[in-house]
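User: Please fill in residues for this 248-position structure.
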């Protein structure tokens, strides 16, 4: 639905000027409904409309008949075809419409491209003036589940764990289940791994993920993780028992 604002210049017999502003609504490109008159008037689905209203600055009631041709919500042609003063001598002269403003009315947004986890989407809307507007919909980004073990770790082989995106279950990530503290990725934890972890804790020069040593899953590698790894190693009774016990 679009709104039309009409501004009429009215000349009185005494030479005075007044401005009559008429606002109407256009529905379905045809029906014209009065929203500013002082009375409720039946207009109907036609190209002719009648308003009975008080003219601003003139103590009189007048009737103005305006012929309006509307096509697809746009006024193609209009003209004043009749005017009449009931209360004053002389004749009102109604000029042609000085200004017509058609408000731009936008449709609802239509999604033309759904966003995914990795790519943005798109939505579009159109107006009664033939304009269109396109807005990018941000990518959803992955919403990962917790890691789930799908293959248990053995002495010979590292295990496998997996996580799945809740936005799209076709998006999956897998990773090996490494021994906590296996800094050199040789599938065992020995004194060399412990020394590397100690160096990291002291200097903070390497990312914690390199050492796979975040034993308590708090996103930090610190002395508490190291103590836990040492405890596990001592219990395992490896050939490096004496050295490991000394380091720990």
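Assistant: Residues filled in for all 248 positions:
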């Amino acid at each position: 639905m679009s709104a039309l604002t009409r501004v009429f210049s009215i000349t009185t017999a005494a030479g005075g000027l007044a401005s009559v502003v008429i606002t109407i609504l256009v529905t379905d490109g045809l029906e014209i409904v009065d929203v500013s008159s002082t009375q409720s008037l039946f207009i109907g689905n036609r190209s002719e409309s009648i308003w009975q209203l008080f003219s601003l600055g003139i103590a009189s009631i007048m009737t103005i008949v305006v012929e309006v041709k509307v096509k697809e919500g746009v006024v193609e042609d209009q003209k004043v075809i009749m005017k009449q003063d009931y209360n004053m001598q002389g004749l009102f002269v109604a000029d042609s419409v000085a200004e017509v403003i058609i408000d731009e009315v936008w449709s609802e947004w239509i999604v033309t491209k759904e966003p995914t986890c990795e790519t943005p989407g798109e939505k579009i809307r159109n107006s009664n003036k033939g304009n269109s507007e396109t807005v990018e919909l941000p990518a959803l980004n992955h919403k990962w589940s917790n890691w789930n073990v799908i293959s248990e770790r053995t002495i010979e082989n590292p295990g496998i764990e997996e996580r799945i995106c809740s936005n799209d279950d076709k998006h999956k990530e897998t990773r090996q289940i490494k021994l906590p503290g296996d800094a050199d990725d040789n599938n065992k934890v020995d004194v060399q791994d412990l020394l590397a972890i100690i160096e990291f804790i002291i200097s903070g020069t390497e990312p914690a993920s390199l050492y796979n040593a975040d034993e308590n899953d708090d996103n930090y590698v610190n002395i508490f993780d190291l103590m836990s790894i040492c405890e596990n190693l001592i219990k395992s009774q490896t050939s490096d028992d004496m050295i490991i016990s000394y380091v720990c």
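For context: Residues 1-102, 239-247 have pLDDT under 50 and may be disordered.
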